[in-house]
TrEMBL record, chain A:
The lineage of its organism: Bacteria, Bacillati, Actinomycetota, Actinomycetes, Propionibacteriales. One of its GO terms (molecular function) is phosphoribosylformylglycinamidine synthase activity. Pfam families: GATase_5 (PF13507). This is Phosphoribosylformylglycinamidine synthase subunit PurQ. Pathway: Purine metabolism; IMP biosynthesis via de novo pathway; 5-amino-1-(5-phospho-D-ribosyl)imidazole from N(2)-formyl-N(1)-(5-phospho-D-ribosyl)glycinamide: step 1/2. One of its GO terms (biological process) is 'de novo' IMP biosynthetic process.
UniProtKB/TrEMBL annotation, chain B:
Pathway: Purine metabolism; IMP biosynthesis via de novo pathway; 5-amino-1-(5-phospho-D-ribosyl)imidazole from N(2)-formyl-N(1)-(5-phospho-D-ribosyl)glycinamide: step 1/2. It is an enzyme of class 6 (ligase). GO terms for cellular component: cytoplasm. This is Phosphoribosylformylglycinamidine synthase subunit PurS. The keyword Metal-binding does not apply. Part of the FGAM synthase complex composed of 1 PurL, 1 PurQ and 2 PurS subunits. It comes from the Bacteria. One of its GO terms (molecular function) is phosphoribosylformylglycinamidine synthase activity.
């Protein structure tokens, strides 16, 4: 499968994301923020970083990049899209996902190995995990506090759209310990921690993040 | 030329860590009596003229780009140049 990785000005983790995609058994295709087409990819990853310098609000400018017009249209058509960290912020600003990410409640940038529980293992990005699987991957953000109104939070819980939840500590003040959510259709996933940094034994906290990049293959194989 | 001001503030129910940090710093500097601080953004848009159509356009800009309606409220108002200058010198 061909998985596109979008690079915006200020993106940091595109190379790691592409590497994780290759280790996961797929072909990584570079997409540029100024592109008007998705080069025929089967899925898209919006990687982490500080696109457009986080000016205005994190993800607010990126949302209007030419490539995002294509990503939003394709996502609404069912294309699997994973937004990690800044990518999650961009998906919220694009209204592909509910809620928003605000500055960490303790005001400090946080960087730690974070334990998570996978609570929705039926998205194209999480099907390699079992429901309730506990994983440890890197978390690094300054504005990772997930917020939404109570009605939206209740809806997300009721519809099983909380993809991952923080365990042990809530690192950034996210409401109801939410680390990741999905859209109504289940094809768009936003996640604050970084699975792409946990795909090899050599570096990072282990290989717990690899499932995000192999789920897709398993799902494709089962079709 | 007329200036249209858009003030963007975090919604009351949304935690404002920056405002909280400022509030925490005030007593340390000897400023007492401030029970809450909320931090927002102010945009000054210089326009050719102020018409209902222009104000409607600015409201649209505020809703689309300048604010995130999920977490922020905004207000649009017209300010004269003299007010801006006075504000800058105050």
């Amino acid at each position: 499968m061909k998985v596109g990785v979008v690079t915006f000005p200020g993106t940091l983790d595109d190379v790691d994301a592409a590497r994780a995609i290759r280790i996961g058994g797929h072909e990584a295709v570079s997409l540029w923020h100024g592109d008007h087409d998705l080069k025929g990819v089967d899925a898209v990853v919006l990687p982490g970083g500080f696109s457009y310098g986080d000016y205005l609000r994190c993800g607010a400018i990126s949302r209007f990049a030419p490539v995002m017009t294509e990503v939003v249209a394709a996502a609404n058509g069912g294309l699997p899209v994973l937004g990690i960290c800044n990518g999650f912020q961009i998906l919220c600003e694009s209204h592909l996902l509910p809620g928003a990410l605000i500055r960490n409640d303790h005001m400090k940038f946080v960087c730690r190995d974070q334990r998570l529980r996978i609570e929705n293992a039926s998205t194209p990005w999480t099907s390699a995990y079992s429901h309730g699987a506990e994983i440890t991957i890197a978390l690094k953000n300054g504005e990772g506090g997930f917020v939404a109104d109570e009605a939206t939070l209740d809806m997300l819980e009721a519809e099983g759209r909380v993809v991952a939840r923080y365990l042990d500590v809530n690192p950034n003040g996210s409401m109801r310990d939410i680390a990741g959510v999905t859209n109504e259709r289940g094809n768009v996933v936003g996640l604050m921690p970084h699975p792409e940094h946990a795909v090899e034994e050599l570096t990072g906290s282990g290989t717990d993040g690899l499932g995000f990049f192999t789920s897709f293959l398993e799902q494709a194989a089962s079709v | 030329m007329p200036v249209v001001v858009v003030d963007v503030m975090p919604k009351p129910e949304i935690l404002d860590p920056q405002g909280k940090a400022v509030q925490g710093a005030l007593p340390r500097l000897g400023f007492a009596g401030v029970s809450d601080v909320r931090q927002g953004k102010r945009f000054e848009l210089t326009v050719e003229e102020v018409t209902d159509e222009v104000l409607a356009q600015v409201a649209k800009m505020a809703e689309t780009l300048l604010s995130n309606p999920v977490i922020e409220n905004f207000t649009v108002r017209v300010e004269t140049t003299s007010e801006i200058v006075a504000g800058a010198n105050a």
